[in-house]
């Protein structure tokens, strides 16, 4: 499998650190001098992020609250992490979680999957067999 040999693209960049911050409150500084404080909800491979429960502050100090905001990765200048955040531990935990999710998605080696009717069958990679269910 080619994907396992090369690894995930985000594991070779600092995006994996930002993705490990999901669920934490961050301060994000943008190139247009805005500062956004909020809880990181999502981060994709291009470092586009979604923050919830946000407070946006401009250069003059005017603040506004928004329930959710999307920030394009190319406009991010800095992301401030909590001082107590252990980068290596969080990145490793996220990598292990993604490995388990990938194994479960592929079906593992001979893993059993249950259907909605309660029957069990072996997970198959063949589209012909999968379409019969």
Features:
133 residues; elongated; five-stranded antiparallel beta sheet; alpha+beta; 27% helix; two-stranded antiparallel sheet; SH3 type barrels; disordered N terminus
Mean of pLDDT = 78
Structural class: alpha+beta
Determine the fraction of residues in helical runs and give it as a percent range. Answer: 25-40%
| Topology-level CATH name of the domain at 2-85 | SH3 type barrels
Strand arrangement in the largest pleated sheet: 4-3-2-1-5
What is the gyration radius calculated from CA atoms?
20 Å
Low-confidence stretches: 1-5, 112-133
Q: Label the CATH architecture of the domain at 2-85.
A: Roll
| Total beta strands | 7
Q: Write down the CATH class of the domain at 2-85.
A: Mainly Beta
State the major sheet. 5 strands, antiparallel
Shape: elongated
What string, H for helix and E for strand, traces the elements in order? Answer: HHEEEEEHEEH
Determine the number of helices (DSSP H or I, runs of at least 4 residues): 4
Strand content: 25-35%
Distance between the termini: 26 Å
Fold and architecture overview:
This protein is an alpha+beta fold and 133 residues long. The chain has a domain at 2-85: SH3 type barrels. It contains four helices and seven strands. Strand 2 and strand 3 form a beta hairpin. The radius of gyration is 20 Å and the shape is elongated. The two termini are 26 Å apart.
